[in-house]
Design brief:
binds adenosine-5'-triphosphate, alpha/beta, 264 residues, 10 strands, Rossmann fold, Metal_Ion_Import_ABC, ABC transporter ATP-binding protein, four-stranded antiparallel beta sheet, ATP hydrolysis activity
Length: 264
């Protein structure tokens, strides 16, 4: 699985280690995402998924044998101009007194600087991002008034304005109804089809196995990685150990995993 050339990886993370408050949070985590791939990062609460994404963004102190985007070291400028980031909804300051359009425009600050007017080309990108995330009709609404699903779509639109080559999504489906999940899944798959490398953390394992090209099972370390079909074959022990669940947990059956004796 890891024998393909690093040169082709849109996102390449090698041997990432993170220690926070004296605790080892990530241990030698390596992963990659190809251009055009939709990849899920799954694991229990506290597994280190958010820490991994924030390390890629340079927001958390870490050590690594190398992180690169399309072969270029992932420095602050590369992150700012090529990587789109959708944080968890609760991390965003929703009481900020601005409109949906202004929030989406704020996704341009990496290249514009605060307070500068967006050029025509940027305005086009803002309209396109709003259209794709289906928030155009909300453009002049104040941010604080939105529902959870509307907020999530605004965060996605804001991440799309720079037309990123890499998109990092932190639990984009949490608390969303089915139509909004379908809309966003279609959007993420569409972005991947256009060549974007999409990496998403999620607790929705069924949807991830259904929608994603590859998945990483993570809890401090990478416990397994592969296509949905490959991961259904790794053995139920790996899933039980990663997610710290019992053999009787109905999730295992719902995921279509084989039992210890090889039966479903
Ligand atoms: N600033 C910090 N100082 C110390 N420990 C931290 C810090 N930030 C996170 N951690 C710890 O790192 C571990 C991983 O947290 P992280 O948020 O990355 O997990 P996660 O997989 O995203 O979990 P969840 O599914 O609950 O969002 C947790 O045990 C958390 O308590």
């Amino acid at each position: 699985m890891h024998n393909d050339s690093h040169a082709h990886h849109a996102l390449d993370v090698r041997c990432l280690n993170v220690t926070l408050g004296g605790r080892h949070i990530l241990d030698d985590v390596s992963l990659h995402v190809h251009a055009g791939e939709f990849v899920a990062l799954i694991g229990p609460n506290g597994a280190g998924k958010t820490t991994l994404i924030r390390s890629i963004l340079g927001l958390i102190p870490h050590s690594t044998a190398g992180m690169s985007a399309y072969g270029v070291p992932l420095d602050a400028r590369t992150v700012r101009t090529r990587v789109g980031y959708v944080p968890q909804r609760h991390e965003f300051a929703w009481d900020f007194p601005i409109t949906v359009r202004e929030t989406v425009v704020s996704g341009l600050t990496g290249i514009l600087g605060f307070g500068r007017r967006a050029k025509l080309e940027h305005q086009k990108a803002v309209e396109e991002a709003m259209r794709r995330a289906d928030v155009t009709h909300l453009a002049s609404r104040p941010l604080g008034e939105l529902s959870g699903g509307q907020k999530q779509r605004v965060l996605v639109a804001r991440a799309l304005v720079l037309r990123p080559d890499i998109l990092l999504l932190d639990e984009p489906f949490t608390g969303l109804d089915m139509p909004t999940q379908e809309l966003l899944n279609d959007l993420f798959r569409g972005l991947a089809r256009e060549g974007c490398a999409v990496l998403m953390t999620t607790h929705d394992l069924i949807s991830a196995l259904d929608q994603c090209d590859r998945l990483y099972l993570i809890r401090e370390r990478v416990r397994a990685a592969g296509t949905p079909d490959e991961l259904r074959e790794v053995g139920v022990d790996v899933w039980m150990d990663t997610f710290q669940i019992r053999e009787t947990n109905p999730l295992l059956g719902a995921l279509g995993l084989r039992g210890k004796d090889g039966k479903e």
